[in-house]
Specification:
This is Acyl-CoA reductase-like NAD-dependent aldehyde dehydrogenase. By secondary structure, this protein is α/β, with parallel strands linked by helices. It folds into two domains: 11-237 and 435-455, Aldehyde Dehydrogenase, Chain A, domain 1, CATH 3.40.605; 241-417, 3-Layer(aba) Sandwich (Aldehyde Dehydrogenase, Chain A, domain 2), CATH 3.40.309.10. Helix content is 41%, strand content 20%. The strands form five sheets. A seven-stranded mixed β-sheet has the order 12-13-14-11-10-16-17, sandwiched between helices. A six-stranded mixed β-sheet has the order 7-6-5-8-9-19, sandwiched between helices. The chain has a three-stranded antiparallel β-sheet with strand order 3-4-20. The longest helix has 21 residues, at 86-106.
């Protein structure tokens, strides 16, 4: 359940990034609400831990179906608060429902292993829930991402305190309410607030896991606190994902792939394309095609190409573009803040970028494609790997050997070949470096959210 704040005058107010009007007003949880939330989750933990896995799976399945019935409502809230285009917002809710259903099936069959020991004895492992999970989730795909953490935590017998981003509080509050209407009391408790609320949560005793998707700075803060509290940390943080375009691919096709990766959801995806290394042999045609792709998106209807989430994000994106231009990069299209209300920003292509520019060293999280021309696939691979982030990377190549080398040498959690998005359902990825640690999705997340006990059994000596 979501707790009613004791201070009704404190609210989170979000403006619509399309027109600047008020999109939502959500009560902010007080410090006392935070304490109560953790206490409720802690009180519910023993009973939920003892609930049969099959029953936990059945309840999660029911919660997913309840969520499906309110998909349009959640998608509308998401669009109003973050500017996510309606089709993508609804798709995010549907993806969240699918993830909950997936974990409803995986949870009951999550099992230990038999070990080969001495004759006459038995050895095996048993997974146990960790306890109370603090879930901190982002705004860019709020329902889909939250359902991944919540579903895995709940089905493995943990209870959860969930705080989503202050950029979409009404969406997250409603998500928490809908799921809690089906689940037993205290299994999922929602808290609404900003960074100060997050700090209040970190000050609480009795939290066993910090599960976070969001900025690297917040992930670092969680790891710092966990050194004191000994909580287990699972974090998927920022990325600076590279694409390497080889000389043997169709440059127009490659430009369509890069445009999808850089401009989908206005560049506000964890695995968005952030850096482009294109072989000199195809660079001219590639850049020309990429500019056409960018212009088409900027001119597209609002239902297909939305704004950035707010003016603060737009200012941060534009700062990186301006830094690049002032330092010698060439603005091929976009890069100008439009007049009028809201936080729209055009799809932007930069060329002539240097390796030390902000658009190449920092996560931009906006619709910007900085293009760096390289003389060989090897050079592109080397530059793609030379980064402090380690979330994902893509290579576009017809050379199987180059693809295999990329998979072996890129220090990232996911290497994609000839497709910037996609992958098998249930896939797990483990980010590196500043992008986080631990498996954040798929079956491996069940392992992250449980502990393992090894059992050794021998007959009692002298037993009759």
């Amino acid at each position: 359940m979501t707790l009613a704040p004791t201070d009704p005058t404190a609210h989170l107010v979000v403006t619509d990034p399309v027109d600047g009007t008020v999109a939502s007003t959500t009560p902010r949880s007080s410090d006392e609400d935070v304490r109560q939330a953790v206490a409720r989750a802690r009180a519910a933990a023993p009973g939920w831990r003892r609930t049969a896995p099959a029953e936990r799976g059945a309840l999660l399945r029911a919660a997913a179906e309840h969520l499906r019935e309110h998909a349009d409502e959640l998608a509308t809230l998401n669009t109003r608060e973050t500017g996510k285009v309606p089709g993508d917002a609804l798709g995010g809710v549907e993806a969240g429902v699918g993830t909950l259903l997936q974990y409803a099936e995986l949870g009951p069959v999550h099992r230990g292993e038999a070990l080969r020991g001495q004759h006459g004895a038995a050895d095996w492992t048993v997974p146990h829930p960790r306890g109370v999970v603090l879930a901190l989730t982002p705004w860019n795909d709020p329902v889909a991402v939250a359902c991944g953490i919540l579903g895995a935590a709940i089905v493995t017998g943990n209870t959860v305190v969930h705080k989503g981003s202050e950029r979409c509080p009404a969406t997250i509050a409603r998500l928490n309410e809908l799921l809690a209407e089906v689940l037993p009391e205290g299994v999922l408790v929602g808290v609404d607030g900003d960074a100060a609320t997050g700090e209040a949560l970190l000050a609480q005793d009795g939290i066993d896991v910090y599960a976070h998707v969001g900025s690297t700075a917040t992930g670092d803060r969680l790891s710092e606190v966990a050194a004191r509290t000994r909580a287990h940390v699972v974090r998927e943080n920022g990325g600076n994902d590279a694409v390497v375009v080889d000389a043997d691919v169709d440059p127009v096709w490659a430009a369509s792939q890069v445009a999808l990766g850089a401009f989908a959801n206005t560049g506000q995806i964890c695995t968005s394309v952030e850096r482009v290394y294109v072989h000199r042999a195809v660079a001219v045609a590639f850049v020309a095609a990429l500019v056409v792709e960018a212009d088409a998106r900027t001119a597209a209807p609002a239902a297909q190409y939305g704004p950035l989430v707010d003016e603060r994000m737009r200012d941060a994106v534009h700062h990186q573009v301006r830094d690049a231009v002032e330092r010698g990069a060439v603005l091929r299209t976009g890069g100008v803040v439009p007049d009028g209300p809201g936080s729209a920003y055009p799809a932007t292509v930069l060329t002539g970028v240097a390796d030390d520019m902000l658009v190449m060293t920092e996560e931009t999280f906006g619709p910007v494609a900085p293009v760096r021309v390289v003389d060989s696939f090897d050079e592109g691979l080397r530059l793609a790997a030379a980064d402090r982030y380690g979330l994902a990377a893509t290579v576009l190549t017809a050379d199987t050997g180059n693809a295999l080398r990329a998979a072996a040498e890129l220090p990232v959690g996911t290497v994609k070949v000839n497709a910037v998005f996609g992958g098998a359902p249930g896939g797990s990825a483990e980010p590196r470096g500043a992008s986080g640690s631990g498996f954040g999705y798929g079956p491996h997340l069940l392992d992250e959210l449980t502990t393992t006990t090894v059992v050794h059994l021998e007959p009692a000596g002298g037993a009759r």
